[in-house]
Amino acid sequence: MSDASINASTVREDEASFGDYFALLKPRVMSLVVFTALVGLLAAPVPVHPVIGFCAILFIAIGGGASGALNMWWDADIDRVMKRTKGRPIPTGKIQEGEAMAFGLALSGLSVIMLGLATNVFAGAFLAFTIFFYVVVYTMWLKRSTPQNIVIGGAAGAFPPVIGWIAATGSMSVEPWLMFALTFMWTPPHFWALALFMRSDYDDAGVPMLTVTHGRRATRVHILVYTALLALLAVGTAFSDIGGPVYLTVALIMNFLFLRGAWKISRRNEDASEADNFRVERNFFKLSLLYLFLHFGAILAEALLKPYGLGGWG
Amino acid sequence: MSLRKTHELHQRRFGRNIGVALTLAAFIVIIFGLTVVKVTRGDFEPPRGEVQN
């Protein structure tokens, strides 16, 4: 009975549950990875067997989760300072930093090898590169050294549709890179809006976000400029092989709303924002989530309609 | 040796063990399914020569 009894001297009261290990994988980020990778996989012109497609998405998701765990391991010091991340498993002491690193490395290896075996070596190698980019290039290098951190680091979050496409076709073409560009250009306004209403969080942690290094006024202007460039790209994508009438309609409506939000943010000053607790910035952030979901949803709709002669431009 | 009331920690560890068991079982099912699909599609067959006797 002694094995199962509680020894007060060795037991940690805050010992991790299964859910804490799952939280290390950043499930919300993983849901974006799953969705965009799925769209990349299904928009590809090569049909994929459902079981192989399921495995591909699963291993891409595990790879994304593994990079999340490695990010939490490396960033444990700043996660303890920021309000938004204080409740994560490492800052709360439920999981040790070394455990998170081992968990992340093990899942990285597993996901890369399994994706390579389930689909093709190229897809596995590209997943490995994505994990490397997110953990080493973004987390270890850019995040703490440049205000352009999320601009370049956003690439890591934009790779999943490309991996999905490669998993299906075994090769590259322009279309997955358009999906990449869509997420890549969307990331800066999305995170800068968050940085505006999280106020001192990044400052306290010493992360050189644009709001900290160039000021809040410059951040508002940057949001508008990036949103305008994003709108051109998003509407232009409608006339590629992955676009069509459904996508064009969604792109026109969503980019109008997104541009209007960015314009409002650029015209506001800090007093007005403080007065209504950053209502416009918060609404823009929420809209940005819907924006990306609907754009990729429209690409998916075009792909699913194609077998019935309805998707695309005919 | 006295019997002790189940500690909250026991429940948490039990939950974690069940989670690991289910994850491993799911992994086995996925690998089995993937293997069946790959074998039935002929992914593992050696390439055939152009000239057959």
UniProtKB/TrEMBL annotation, chain A:
Pathway of action: Porphyrin-containing compound metabolism; heme O biosynthesis; heme O from protoheme: step 1/1
Keywords for the protein's UniProt record, in alphabetical order: Cell membrane, Heme biosynthesis, Membrane, Transferase, Transmembrane, Transmembrane helix
Known EC number: 2.5.1.141
Membrane topology reported for the UniProt record: Multi-pass membrane protein
Membrane-crossing residue ranges in chain numbering: 29-45, 51-74, 95-115, 121-142, 149-171, 177-198, 219-239, 245-263, 284-305
InterPro entries documented for this protein: Protohaem_IX_farnesylTrfase (IPR006369), UbiA_prenyltransferase (IPR000537), UbiA_prenylTrfase_CS (IPR030470), UbiA_sf (IPR044878)
Keyword rRNA-binding tagged: no
Keyword check for Thylakoid: no
PROSITE patterns from the UniProt entry: UBIA (PS00943)
Enzyme class: transferase
One Pfam family it belongs to: UbiA
Similarity annotation: Belongs to the UbiA prenyltransferase family. Protoheme IX farnesyltransferase subfamily.
Its job: Converts heme B (protoheme IX) to heme O by substitution of the vinyl group on carbon 2 of heme B porphyrin ring with a hydroxyethyl farnesyl side group.
Protein name: Protoheme IX farnesyltransferase
